[in-house]
Amino acid sequence: MSDHDDATGAMNFIFEAGVLKRAARTGWWFAGVKHPESIAEHSFRTALIGMMLAAMEGADPGRVSMMCVLHDTQETRITDIPHIAKRYLSAVPNAAVTADQVAACPPAVADAITAAVTEYEAQETLEAIVARDADKLECLVQAVEYRHQGIDNVQRWIDSSRAALKTSSAHRLADAALAGQPLAWLTSSPPPA
Known about the structure:
Elements: H1 3-18, H2 39-57, H3 61-70, H4 75-78, H5 94-101, H6 107-122, H7 126-148, H8 155-164, H9 168-179, H10 185-188
């Protein structure tokens, strides 16, 4: 494979990942959210939460953030399947979807992405556990924000997300989210000097 060919393959993955900016997180429709967040918006904040949780838990923030960014990239091909639909559908493992997505990328890129997704799915390292906690915590935070916007049907997302958390830091942040006000930061900053 020439350098040009694998650059084209890498760019194809980048273009494909761009679809996530337009693809909605479909489960929120059941709660009555007319214009739910995109998968990319979810993944961005998941990566931010993951970086923070990693620092709090003594994990590698860079590795956790990488897994968080990549954890839903497969949804360009399989979509965001709502939890209830998973009862009726079977899908290939995320690692297999990722392998197809990065097959034409430079080998070092394909290997790095595939390894991160495989690690995340296996849930055997502290970094993978923290990354999954970040995913669940982001869902909980989004539910809290939707509730503050007047969407009342979000408690099941809060409960299921909270129940899935493994680390003590994620539990502490969940408690803070549930007790907090999403726009409190607007008035809590000191005035400029």
